[in-house]
């Protein structure tokens, strides 16, 4: 017979099962004990009646401490009043390991304490729910790309040059020379799609971000996608379909997790069903100005501006065509009617203060224009010769984007700080364990 886990309780109602797990809390009256049990797949209450079990089992119930491991023999019962819908009538307890006093108890702990003890904090309900949503998002992304005919193309973590903002590079000693931890696999993917058509990568990337916001990690997971013969509008179509798919899967498959997190999902539901907004950077700034913001038309969107745009529309917004001067060298550029150089790009801003979850653009496909730009920005042209060559042999219009896994999980789960969305976060202050 199939092995029991709490998540499969619906298929075991009325049956005798063995649960292999931990006790995360308990209540006892001296005659009846209520054990809060978990096994990794979920949570369930076990009821032990002194009159109905052996003395050994009753004593075990009394002896169990928080986070002790235990094997529980019992009968699964439907229990509409419990959050999981089920309960266990305990027949027998086998103690595996008695835990000494668990540092994370019932009382409220500050985030500092919880993250110093992240290895233990991982056993709590919030991390359980958030990290399972993360797992779902990861699978939605890879499934989506597989179905859409993309090839997974793993890009190097050790890179000899910068792929984004040069001020955010982690440099490492590499034999007799220097290398950098990747900021994005994009440049390599651009080479990849000239062989494979459509490709994506998915892995950890690194940014020496001094900004201590609730949206920044030094190490995070990014999925870069790149597509030949795609202009920026087609690029945004793919992003919109991907995000809708991620949200739909999470709503369908993470119901219990979202309930534990007390997440109101109405905005997410709206994003699944309605078309995302596409607005030019200039028009977004103008809208903000009309709302009383003191905007700088030539600069990036500020934190407050991104939050306001998200609140205003209540649905994800592509902000398009940023001033070229504040964007990366590889973006395709044009000069607008106000004589401002613009990138053909978009950042996707999510509502509910989630802010930017995707950055993407059409890439410069002219060898000469890209060379001119590299020189203008004082990049070492020799280092980028291979990248220039993508434009030399059969250059085509192409575009792509990068989605931040943790930013996306933060939005869906609704947790305040991005550090909750990755098992062991790395920030300017979080480096252990
Ligand atoms: O906007 P970014 O910097 O874009 C790129 O790196 C492009 N090369 C991607 C591409 O076109 N292939 O980063 C992409 C996404 C952001 O939208 C955000 O979701 C996430 O990565 N991100 C971060 N997430 C957590 N902590 C940080 N410090 C992040 N910086 C960027
Ligand atoms: Mg960005």
Condensed summary:
The chain is of the alpha+beta class and 433 residues long. The protein has two domains: 92 residues, OB fold (Dihydrolipoamide Acetyltransferase, E2P), CATH 2.40.50; 303 residues, BirA Bifunctional Protein, domain 2 (2-Layer Sandwich).
Describe this structure in words.
- With 433 residues, the chain is α+β, with helices and mostly antiparallel strands.
- The protein folds into two domains: 6-97, Nucleic acid-binding proteins (OB fold (Dihydrolipoamide Acetyltransferase, E2P), Beta Barrel), CATH 2.40.50; 119-421, Bira Bifunctional Protein, Domain 2 (BirA Bifunctional Protein, domain 2, 2-Layer Sandwich).
- Helices cover 31% and strands 27% of the residues.
- It is built from 13 helices and 18 strands.
- The chain has helices spanning 55-63, 111-116, 118-121, 125-147, 186-196, 232-253, 255-260, 266-273, 281-290, 303-313, 367-376, 385-389, 405-413; strands spanning 16-28, 32-38, 43-49, 69-78, 86-97, 151-152, 158-159, 171-174, 177-181, 198-206, 219-228, 277-280, 317-320, 333-335, 341-343, 345-350, 355-362, 398-404.
- The strands form four sheets. The protein has an eight-stranded mixed sheet with strand order 6-10-11-18-17-16-13-12, sandwiched between helices.
- β14 (333-335) and β15 form a beta hairpin.
- α4 crosses α6 (232-253) and α4 crosses α13 (405-413).
- The mean pLDDT is 96.
- It binds 4-amino-1,4-dioxobutan-2-aminium adenosine-5'-monophosphate and magnesium ion (MG).
- 4-amino-1,4-dioxobutan-2-aminium adenosine-5'-monophosphate binds next to β11, β17, β18 and α13.
- Residues 163-164, 184, 186, 207, 209, 216-217, 220, 222, 224, 356-360, 400-402, 404, 406-407 line the site of 4-amino-1,4-dioxobutan-2-aminium adenosine-5'-monophosphate.
